[in-house]
Amino acid sequence: MRARLIVFPIRGRNWCFSRSIDQSVLDSQYSQTPSTFKQLWIKISSSEKATDSNAELLIDFVANKMNRAWTGLEKAPPGSFKNKIHGLGLRLLAGVRPSEIFLKSISKEVTNVEITYPSSLNARLVRRRLRHIAFRGTVIHKKYFYGSVSMLPLTSAFAVLPLPNIPFFWVLFRTYSHWRALKGSEKLLQLVSDTSESKTPNENSEKADHNSLGVQWVLQPSEELEKQLHCGDDDDGLSKDTISDICKTYDLNTIDVLKYRNSV
């Protein structure tokens, strides 16, 4: 499966790294995840895959349940207890780094990436920055993953209270999130490494077949993205309107991209 990555400077030394949203792929992945314990058991018992694959299936099943519960909170009536929990969750999620969200989007199904970037940027610099964020992710998210796992037994003790165990579910979500970001970091680092096959603008004509077998990353400079950056560039970085236009053009999540602008 191919993933389209959009890379561009957003404010000073802050660069945005984001993946274009492909709703059909999301729907396909969602439909393949078991929705009940019975379906999960049947799929695991009938699978001839390694234990690691079954563990990932179990993790996806739990994540699916958490997403359904979150959707239920989102639809709760205003002012209700569930609605207040949803508001608390939004405030907590606002603190999640955008780089973590980006790395989580690089799933194991991704076999190659198309990297779109402003034409004025050096292609080697773009790939170097991608390798850096991937390598840094393997270090940071491994550390935070083990840290979150160690917090699970402590937060599970709050289950004795007559209230929803929000600390436990938050730590459980952070454990899953760091694990996904770690796997995404490893996958991205593998795809954009020096040993992987690639195509660059200098090696092939613009009409080259980018779907050729064996190509793991393609660098694609964009004149359109370059123009959008110049239209909205100022002393404080790209304006919100410009970021919104770029997100519409390349199917990006505006809220996640804005986090790059405000990050330190």
UniProtKB/TrEMBL annotation:
Transmembrane region(s): 151-173
Pfam families per UniProt: Mit_KHE1
Presence of keyword Transmembrane: yes
InterPro entries reported in the protein's UniProt record: Mit_KHE1
Keywords from the named record: Membrane, Transmembrane, Transmembrane helix
Protein's name in the database: K+-H+ exchange-like protein
